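Lab notebook, page 48
Experiment: co-folding of the full assembly
Goal: obtain a model of how the components sit together before planning crosslinking
Operator: M.T.
Materials (sequences as entered):
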Amino acid sequence: METVLRSKGREVTIGADRPFVVIGERINPTGRKKLAAALEAHRLEVVQELAQAQVEAGADVLDVNVGAAGVDERALLPEAVRLVAEIVDVPLCLDSADREALAAALAVAPGKPLVNSVSGEPASLERVLPVVREFGAAVIGLTLDEGGIPPDAEKRLAIAGRILEYAARIGIPAENVIIDPLVLTVGADSQAARVTLETIELVRREFGVNLSLGASNVSFGLPERPTINQAFLTLGIAAGATCAITDPAKLTPTIRATDLLLGRDPYAARFIQHWRSRASRGVDQA
Amino acid sequence: METVLRSKGREVTIGADRPFVVIGERINPTGRKKLAAALEAHRLEVVQELAQAQVEAGADVLDVNVGAAGVDERALLPEAVRLVAEIVDVPLCLDSADREALAAALAVAPGKPLVNSVSGEPASLERVLPVVREFGAAVIGLTLDEGGIPPDAEKRLAIAGRILEYAARIGIPAENVIIDPLVLTVGADSQAARVTLETIELVRREFGVNLSLGASNVSFGLPERPTINQAFLTLGIAAGATCAITDPAKLTPTIRATDLLLGRDPYAARFIQHWRSRASRGVDQA
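Observation: model returned without errors.
Model output:
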C-alpha cells in the first residue's frame, strides 16, 4: 500500500518497495528552549532556517509543531506552515493536539499534508479524523488508547485496527493512515524495542499499511544514544517500517545505508548522492 | 545449536539466544604493512599488543593470522598462538591456508579453538577438515567452491550443506561448523547484501548451525564505510548471524546496541558495562 503526500510541486510516496522516507522532526519546541523562545517572540525565521537545514540534510517531509507555552497555535501553526512552504517545496506533517489549529493549518498547507497524530482513544478519533477527512490529508495513528501504550504487540495491533476501522467508516482510505507502533526506552524494559519490531511485522502482515518510527525514545536514559538510535532504525526498516520522524542530520546516512543493504538503491545512487551533498556542505563524514 | 570454544580458563558459547560473539580480526597482516613488517622481523610483541587491545575493546575470541611474505607460517603461527594465549585468556581462531601451519598451531593452542577456514571445494574439505577433527576444534565454512562465490542464496545454502555433510562423515558434529555466508560489496552489486542476509536465513532454517559475518567487505569502494558496516552488522544479527570476524574497537558498540534492542541484554547490563569500559579507557563516545 502506498501513501502519497504532496507539496506545491513535489510528490513523496511512502511504500514498502520505495526508499525509506525521512520526516524531519526538528521544528518542534518540545525540549528545545531556544526554539520555544523564538516561537513565543514570533521570530519565525528560525522555523524557516530549520526547514531549509533539514531538507538539505535529507528530509523528504517536514514535521511542523509550534506548541509551546505562550503560543497561540491556532494563529501560529498556519503562519509557520505558510512560511515553511514558502522556503522549501516538500510535503508537511502538521503536528498539533489542537483540532482548530490543525484545521487552520490544513486550510493553508499546499498539496496533501500528513497530520500528526491520532490515537486509538475515542475522543482522539472523533476530534482528529473528521478534519483529516475534510481536507483529504493523511494521518499518523499512534498505537495507544485510554489505557496507555500496551506492553504487547497483539494489543497494539488491535488499536491499529480500531484506528483503521474508524478511518474507513468516515471515508479515509487505509493508504492515508500511517501507523506508529511506538517505542519505549530499552533502558527501562529490555523487551521494549522487540515489542515495537514485532508490532511492525504484525501490522504490516495484517493491514499492509505504512509504518512510521520515532527513532530516539528508544535510547532515552542510556549512554551512546546515537549508536542505539541508528541500530534501532536499521532494525525497524528491516522489519517493515517505511518512514520515520527523526533528525535527518543525524540519521539520514544510516537510513540510506540500510536502503542500500536491503537492495533498494540500484548502483548505490541515492547513497552516494547523499554523501556528496554532505561533503559539499562540509559535514563531517563518518 | 551451540558452538562451544575454550581458552585455558574461559568458555565462549556461540548460539542464537546468546549475546553475539565478536571475533577480533586485527591480528592479520593482509593489507596492514606495519604488522607484516613486524611479523617478518619476528617482533611478536606487536601481536600481543593487538591481542590485549582487542580484548579490552570487547573481543570474545581472537583471530590469529600471520600469513605474510617472508614469513614461515609453520613456525610463526604456533609461536604467535603461544604468545597470545600467554597474554589474554580468550579462545583463538587459527587462520591459515596452510594445513601444516594449522596442525602446528592446533597442537599448542589451549582449550578448543576455531579454525579459519574451509570452503566447499573438495581440495579444501580434504585438506582442512581432517586436522580439525583430529584436534577436536570447530571450523568456519565459507560458502564458496571451485566455481567461486555463487550469486544466489540457494547455491550458497547447497555449499553449506556439502561442508556439513563432509564434516559429519568424518566425525565433526554440525555444532562445530560455523557457516560464513560471505558478502560482496554493495558498491558493485546492489543486491549483494540482500543475498547474504537471505543465505543467513536459509542456512539457519535448514541446518540450525551458527553463522559468522565478515563485516567490512560489504562497503568496499564506497564512502562512509563505518555507517554501512554498522547497518550491515545490525541487519545480519537480526537475520540470524551469531558471530562476526570484525574490528571490536569499531563495531562492538553497534553489536551491543543490537543485542540490547533484540531483547538479549536484560537491564542493558552488557551494553552499559561496555560503555563504562570504553569510558574508563578514554575512548571517544559516539
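Interpretation: The two ends of chain A are 34 Å apart (CA to CA).
Next step: discuss with group before ordering constructs.
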